[in-house]
Amino acid sequence: MSETAARLALHGVSKRYPGVLANDNVSLTVAPGEIHGLIGENGAGKSTLMKIVYGAARPDSGEMRWNGAVVQPSSPAQARKLGIGMVFQHFSLFDTLTVVENVALALPGKMDRAQLARDIEAMGRRYGLPVDTAQHVYSLSVGERQRVEIIRCLLQQPSLLIMDEPTSVLTPQAVEKLFGTLHQLSSEGVAILYISHKLEEVRSLCSRATVLRGGRVTGVCNPREESVASLSRLMIGAEPPRATGVARAAGADQLVVDHLSMAPLERTGKALHDVSLVVRKSEIVGIAGVSGNGQNELLSAISGEDARAPAQSIRIGNTAIGRLSVVARRALGLAFVPEERLGRGAVPALGLDLNTLLTHDTGLTRHGLISQAAITTLARSIIERFGVKAAGPAAAAKSLSGGNLQKFIVGREVVKNPQVFVVSQPTWGVDVGAAAQIRQEIVALRDAGSAVLVVSEELEELFEICDALYVIANGRLSQRIAVRDATIEQIGELMGGASGSSGVEEVQHAEA
Amino acid sequence: MLRLEARPVPSRLMGYAAPVIALAITVIFGTLLFVALGKDPAASLRVFFITPLENLRGLSEVALKMIPLLLCSLGLAICYRSNVWNIGAEGQLVVGGVAAGGMALLASPDSTRAFFVLVLLAGMLGGMAWAAITALLRDKFNANEILVSLMLTYVGGLLLIYLVNGPWKDPKGFNFPYSKTFDAAAMVPKLFAGTRLSWGILIVVVVLAAVWIFLSKSKAGFRLQVAGQAPLAARFAGFSAREGIWASLLLCGALSGLAGALEVAGPLGQLTPQISPGYGFAAIIVAWLGRLHPGGCVLASFIMALIYIGGELSQSRLGLPAAITGVFQGMLLLALLTADTFIYYRLRRA
Q1: Which of chain B's residues have a Cβ under 8 Å away from the Cβ of A368?
Q2: pLDDT tier at B253, thresholds 50, 70, 90
Q3: Which residues does A169 contact at the CB level (< 8 Å), separation at least 6?
Q4: Which of A336, A348, A370 sits opposite B230 (nearest CB)?
Q5: What is the side-by-side order of every strand in the sheet holding A216-221?
Q6: Are A505 and A474 in contact (CB under 8 A)?
Q7: Do the Cβ atoms of B233 and A345 come within 8 Å?
């Protein structure tokens, strides 16, 4: 590809943050109409590179060319003026404003709301992105919110669209629709830079991909000619092992949720409707679903962080636990790993040693005083057994990378050999190697006889380790589905809410 | 245009250096203030910071002022580390003093010498009761503890004024608003003859050690601090948020109440309309100047006590107005807040 033809060309871009070289001599070109994949695991430097392109960070060295001319956008506003649009992984919408108000906020100058609403609808029709412009954003599903973000971007007529991990919040069907939109845009000449760590997606969507590892480019390839295995070698330097275990016949019911209905604690939360599930001894049960469909509410009711459930509606063995405290549930053999690591699973500023005190109730204190020797020993044994990379048992939780902190938090619960182990998004934002290890630990726990409940958005992960699945949508849980009988399409349909999932209905449920 | 920009990594060193820098800024501005008032700055600073430490009497007066400041600041440090914004230590001190005074008035010449222990306990209970109102309103109605504890301070002050003007006024006191002076049995025994220093200072040393252990070693103190730093982690771990509110406020109430009791059953010896020159408020500055750490609070309460004594001396020797103490406290707080801001932010030209 000739230099002048490139819509975007980066040459030798480096960016150093205190203690880490986030981008090291990175070069990358995207042609008009090309869908270019940017792949790499968590922490490989993808976000930093995109921040530089989008004007949110300045490179220490290197140059950026836009349609052949050297540019250095110093703010996102300047980047947008050049014609660069970006859809972020975490949406930047105001919940309490309507769709049209949100879009109006992002566009320069004053405008006629009614005309803007018509523009939004026209853009939606053109690219298959239907939205109701009068709706408040908090009442929209995640997929609809993403559509608003994309339309907001498209209204500025970008000639380069950056998509940052856009499918992490979508059902498989919604992913297909999104890909249709992206193909249409590319056929109209818009260049698309598609950031992902999901190799299958990149293989189906992109004609060219740049692979980052540790801040450097480790390969530029046509992903369609590569296999998932060869791409992951470029990405992590090795192929991720698959979790293996010997499934035994599942035993007696261990964790039972029995016709649980509950109003949400917070106004923006989801109500649970008649949720029933069973996890037996020696089995892993998964809950699939797009996040924000009641997973948090269900898990808080199970963990005891929300102890308002009717006592009999949640049981461990034969004990009704719906109203018991977190500590009492722990004493019954329940262990829980929440989705948020920093601030919930661990106290960021405290050392790993002190963080063991969050969920270990016995053996670490004497006469109410903390035994430093005991917590150091426990933290060190978790670090060693699970290969946690940390400066030591006293290292602050926030000093660990996401993957290492998750290994520590999972390890902290696994060493208790819990009878019931509940884990949310076990590998979210975790690098591929650590993710494989965490999944292996979960399987090992099942093999040792625990009842395990896994909530995850990653369908592949659930299919890999689970024995049975439920799907959650709109605060309702599907029937139990044996994994060997299930297909991704079937689960995807249930995730979209087979009983209808429009935003309007969601609000009515939430306020019921 | 200048703007504040968050620093990527706040410096730990500056966290400890900030109080020293703030103190230096206060001294610099104090010097300018003395010059503006036409006083010799060197001599004035000497009166303020050196003279109080030159003899045993001065030293013992500084130590005497440190007692209430340190007790209140230890209680406040527990509250602030638990993310409970109690600013009513002054009111808890006053009501503790009232309760202690009420008990002390019950003493007679026949009372046992250990009667003062009852006086101190009454003071602690009084302070706890006052703090419990704040805890109750916060717990039951989610009322803002900053407003409640602050306003209760004024209620406590009025309660004291009512009592010394009414039911507890000394009938032989020529109609002055004072209670009768306490019997010797109700008073905290003196430590050395010739100073006003009492056993109170020994009690404070024990309290200091206990608070230090509570915050750094105990599981209960750990639970409070997790609730303060990471409420979601506390809920995840099953540490009760209600426990955090009640425990920190009751502990602070007890310590502030003890401070009030030691004042009335120590240097004052009776109830008067004003039993504290704002110790409870100054202790807020002390707690932050001491980095919410018991050891730091000792150093900070020493400096604050020095400002109190220095302020008194500069009234008599330099003819400065009484407001000088408040001015120095205010400069110190402002300098500390500014220095603390620069730990986390730097100034950039926008």
Answers
A1: 218-220
A2: very high
A3: A142, A143, A146, A290, A291, A457
A4: A348
A5: A84-87, A160-164, A191-196, A35-39, A208-213, A216-221
A6: yes
A7: yes
pLDDT of residue A500: 36
Residue with tokens 């999972």: A410
Residues 13-32 of A with CB under 8 A from B: 17-18
* Exposed / middle / buried, residue A33 (Cβ in 10 Å: 0-12, 13-18, 19+): middle
Burial class (CB in 10 A: 0-12, 13-18, 19+), B190: middle
In whole angstroms, what is the distance from residue B23 CA to residue B336 CA?
Answer: 8
CB-based contact A369 B213, cutoff 8 Å:
yes
Q: For residues A84 and A73, is the Cβ–Cβ distance under 8 A? A: yes
By the CB < 8 Å criterion, does B349 face chain A?
A: no
Count of H-run helices and E-run strands, chain A: 17, 23
Residues, chain B: 350
Pairing status of strand A334-337 against strand A420-424: parallel
Non-local CB neighbours of A352 within 8 Å, separated by 6+ positions? A346, A379, A382, A383, A388, A390, A393, A394, A395, A397, A400, A408
For B271, list phi and psi in degrees, rounded to 5.
-90, 135
Mean pLDDT by runs of 10 across the 512 residues of chain A is: 71 83 90 92 81 89 92 89 85 86 83 88 84 84 81 89 82 83 92 86 90 89 86 74 66 93 83 95 92 89 94 94 95 94 91 95 90 95 90 88 89 95 88 84 93 90 92 92 86 69 36 34
Question: Going along A51-130, which residue ranges are E strands?
Answer: 61-66, 69-71, 84-87
Minimum Cα–Cα distance from B8: chain A residue? A18
Count the Cβ atoms, other than its own, within 10 Å of residue B258.
Answer: 30
Place of tokens 């993957």: A403
Across the beta sheet with A319-320, the strand order is A272-280, A253-262, A314-316, A319-320
More confident residue, B314 or B222: B222
Q: What pLDDT is recorded for position A248?
A: 63
> Which residue reads 């044996």 in tokens?
A482
Q: Which residue of B has its CA nearest to A303?
A: B236
Q: What pTM does this model have?
A: 0.76
Classify strands A283-288 and A451-456 as parallel, antiparallel or unpaired.
Answer: parallel
Contact call for A330 and B8, based on CB within 8 A? no
Residues of A in contact with B232 (CB under 8 A): 340, 343-344
Encoding tokens for residue B98?
């009232």
- Give the closest residue to A99 by CA, choosing from A478, A503, A508, A484: A503
For residue B241, the chain A residue with the least C-alpha distance is A305
Residues 6+ apart with CB under 8 A from B301: B66, B69, B70, B73, B283, B286, B290
